[in-house]
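Reminder to self: tokens first, then the designed residues, so the page reads top to bottom the way the pipeline ran.
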């Protein structure tokens, strides 16, 4: 379980039904009866027979967090799958499929089907109101940051799973994530992209401290060979910082050498199939092959 055990030893409340105990309350969860829509869509999934499911609940600054943590004890060496936005159902569906197929651990923010958390009114000590769960890493969300990163085993590669509205600004759409393969300043374009992989919305994202021309992020060649365009984000800030507060920035700036492997995957809202197709390509990358 890696650093999860350390977090538990530091003062988790382990009794079932504990609510907002300090610092973190853990409770086992039965997916057949759990009051979460993401799990309800998969109540009959046979994979539950081998998966371990729990919730972590905690208050950090002005925000009350609930994380769904699903682990595969039979294949713990798989990736860390992270779904920060509870309004992106296809991302969760793809993540559960990935966990069932490749093992590891899936962590998803539960927030009643909403993207952002509402402030709890207890005094501001976190990210901006309302709080984007993918912008609260680092010093502004210390317990959230420590809890999520503490669930990662040493050396475990990380996959962020997201969906987005189709088309980007300037491309006839409303999406905030869109790649133009001609943008060589920011995109490692695949010469073989076709079908959904060529729509500009189905894309992998990697981050690093170096300029793109000097960057050699892992898995770009694998993804490009599989027809997936890869967007590159240069991250700036001090070691141990969090950049824009996203998980990609936080891990790129983490005081580790080499940095932890992180790949974000984006597809259109509702398009779990394309996200799963990208996952299958990514999992042929040597950095994601379990030892």
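Designed residues (291 positions):
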């Amino acid at each position: 379980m890696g650093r999860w055990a350390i977090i538990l030893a530091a003062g988790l409340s382990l009794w079932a039904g504990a609510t907002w105990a300090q610092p973190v309350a853990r409770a086992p969860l039965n997916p057949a009866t759990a009051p979460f829509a993401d799990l309800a869509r998969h109540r009959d999934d046979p994979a539950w027979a081998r998966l371990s499911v729990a919730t972590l609940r905690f208050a950090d600054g002005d925000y009350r967090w609930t994380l769904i943590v699903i682990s595969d004890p039979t294949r713990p060496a798989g990736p860390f799958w992270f779904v920060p936005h509870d309004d992106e159902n296809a991302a969760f569906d793809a993540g559960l499929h990935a966990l069932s197929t490749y093992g590891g651990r899936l962590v998803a923010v539960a927030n009643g089907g909403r993207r952002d958390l509402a402030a709890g009114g207890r005094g501001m000590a976190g990210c901006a109101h309302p709080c984007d769960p993918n912008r609260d890493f680092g010093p502004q969300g210390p317990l959230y940051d420590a809890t999520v990163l503490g669930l990662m085993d040493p050396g475990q590669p990380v996959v962020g799973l997201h969906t987005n509205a189709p088309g980007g600004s300037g491309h006839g759409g409303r999406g905030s994530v869109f790649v133009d393969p001609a943008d060589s300043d920011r995109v490692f374009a695949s010469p073989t992209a076709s079908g959904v992989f060529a729509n500009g919305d189905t894309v992998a994202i990697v981050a690093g401290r170096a300029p793109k021309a000097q960057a050699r992020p892992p898995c770009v060649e694998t993804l490009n060979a599989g027809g997936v365009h890869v967007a590159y984000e240069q991250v700036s800030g001090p070691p141990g910082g969090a950049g824009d507060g996203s998980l990609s920035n936080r891990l790129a700036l983490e005081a580790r050498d080499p940095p932890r492997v992180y790949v974000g995957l984006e597809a259109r809202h509702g398009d779990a199939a394309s996200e799963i197709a990208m996952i299958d390509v990514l999992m042929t990358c040597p950095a994601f092959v379990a030892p």
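The two ends are 16 Å apart (CA to CA).
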